[in-house]
Design brief:
mainly alpha; DNA-binding; Arc Repressor Mutant, subunit A; homodimer; two-stranded antiparallel sheet; disordered C terminus
DNA sequence: TGAATTCCTATCAGATCGGTAGGAATTAAA
DNA sequence: TTTAATTCCTACCGATCTGATAGGAATTCA
C-alpha cells in the first residue's frame, strides 16, 4: 500500500508540473486538500531528492527541477515510500541479503519477488508528470480476468 | 514491503507443503527459525483463510488444506498482508473510492496503479507451493536493465 | 517596513508491528 | 487413567511508523 504521504506527493507533483510560475505550498494545499504543514514536509523531501526546486520569500514557491516527462511515478514513490521491492533481497540498489538466506542465487521466493519488482518498476517508470499527458500504462499489464477474485 | 509475518508465512507454507504427516508449529518454528508463539498466530490466520488444516492433541499439527499447486503466493500474502494493490481504488475486491476522487473512470493515477496490481497479481498467482516446484516466475517480468538504478 | 513565503525543530496521539505470556482444551499413547 | 504433546484463546507490551500540528526563524519581494 502507498502511504498517504505518497498519494499527496503524486497529487502535489501533478499540481506543480503544468505551471509556468512557482506555486506556494499554501496554494497547492488548498487546491489539493492536503494539510499545509504536512505538505511542506513532503515538498522538502521532494526538494532534497532533486525533483522540485524552491524559491523563498514573497512570490516564492515550488517548481519542477526538470521537465515533467523526465520525472516518473517511480522517482516520487521511492523518495517518499522507499524501495519499490517487496523485500530487501529483491531490491536492485537497496539490496540486503536475508539473515537466514540459504542460497541467494537459487532462492525461488526471491526470484519471484524480483519479477514483481521488475514489472512494478517498468510500469511506474513509464508514467510521468509530462506536459504531454503520458503513454498508456503498461506493456506489462494483463487484461483483467473475469473470475479473478482478489485485490 | 512484505511484513515479517508474510515472510514467515511463506516459509512456513514451504515447510508444510511437502509433508505427508501433520507437522507441529513447534517443529516448523525450530526448522525455520521463527518465534513459536508468533508462528502459531500466523498459522491460525492461514487456517481461518482455509489454506491449512489442523489437528489437535499429541501427533497433531498442520497440513495443507488442498494440494500445494492450488495455493499461490498471492493467496498467502493476501491473508497476512491484505490486498496486493497499492491503493484501495486500485484493488479489484477491496475496492474503495478515494474520498477526493474527481473521476474514477478517467483517473490516470488509478489506471497506473491498476496496471501495477494486475502485473503483480499475475506473477504472484503463478507461483505455487508445488510439489512440482513451479514454473519460472514470470510472463510479465522484464529482463533487468543494466543502467537501472533503483529498488 | 510589511507581507508572503520557505525552512527548521519539536511534539504528539494513534495505529501497526513483532513478539511474549500463560493457560485452557483436546488428543494419542503409555 | 495418567501423561505428554499439541492446538487454541486471550491478553499484553515496547518500539516504531504514520499522519499530522505548532511555533517561529530566515528570506525575499513590493
Amino acid at each position: 500500500m502507498l502511504s498517504q504521504r505518497a498519494r499527496y506527493a503524486i497529487r502535489a507533483m501533478f499540481n506543480v508540473a503544468p505551471r509556468a510560475e512557482p506555486v506556494s505550498a499554501a496554494r497547492i494545499a488548498a487546491e489539493e486538500a492536503i494539510p499545509r504543514k504536512f505538505l511542506e514536509a513532503i515538498l522538502a523531501d521532494l526538494k532534497k531528492a532533486g525533483l522540485v526546486e524552491s524559491s523563498r520569500g514573497a512570490l516564492g514557491g515550488y517548481r519542477l527541477a526538470r521537465p515533467g516527462d523526465e520525472i516518473s511515478f517511480a522517482d516520487v514513490l521511492r523518495v517518499v515510500d522507499g524501495p519499490l521491492a517487496l523485500a530487501p533481497c529483491a531490491s536492485r540498489t537497496a539490496y540486503r541479503q536475508c539473515d537466514d538466506c540459504r542460497d541467494v542465487e537459487t532462492c525461488e521466493t526471491r526470484r519471484t519477488l524480483l519479477a514483481v519488482r521488475d514489472a512494478t518498476a517498468a510500469i511506474l517508470e513509464g508514467r510521468h508528470f509530462g506536459p504531454s499527458g503520458d503513454e498508456r500504462p503498461a506493456a506489462c499489464a494483463m487484461p483483467p480476468q473475469d473470475a479473478r477474485v482478489d485485490s
